[in-house]
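Sequence only, no structure available. Ideas?
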Amino acid sequence: MRNKVKLYQAFGELIYTLLVEEDVLCEEKTKLFRNRIVLHPYKQTIEKSFDDGLYDEDDIDYLFDKLITKCEKNGMDREYIFMYNLLEDLANLANENVKKKTLKKRIAKVAEKFKSEIDRINKESASFPSLINFALEGRFLIEWPMFLLHPFIPKRIDGQSHPVLFLPPFLWGDYSMNHIRKFVRNQGFKTYKWKLGVNLVREEHLVKLEARLDEIFEKHNQKVSVVGWSGGGILG
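Reply:
I predicted one. Tokens follow.
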């Protein structure tokens, strides 16, 4: 949570500084951005940095590097898509309303550079598991037959349709969790597959998993439990 606050503080500072030129920072031309973040969980953080106006246009390179540093510490995150789209909107707005060609080019360059840096961060984050972790995933073959014990486990819990998302082991998909989902479903829970194919235990799954969690949360309007087996537990 703290890292996200710092991330959006840096983002708000960069947005403000890109808009600091005359004829750009006015209510009509910034309304688009305020509307885009009206329901964002870090709306207040962005607007506070935006409204404080602590920097000028000469600090853009510094603020950009500061934002990228925060992104690197935060790791892979789908929030970067929101940030890039906002920067792209700003570039389009500047292209339509700003007379100074240098300012148009600068905003477009920042948006393009941000996308390039985020692609780099995501690529570096999506590393393959180490050989030791890879070997340990072999425990799955020993654990899997335990589903034979399910008929002998008494039903003692009423899940009350609480949503549960299941993450499969390394190199396996949703099918491998069928017996576990069935057991939990019989306890009264609402179970969900992860729907991301084979689990390679890569951070690139996290962005899509967050979207999957959002989808389930919006359907039930309550917290979602996450059950991960072996490599799925790492992602969980």
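The longest strand covers residues 163-167.
Hope that gets you unstuck.
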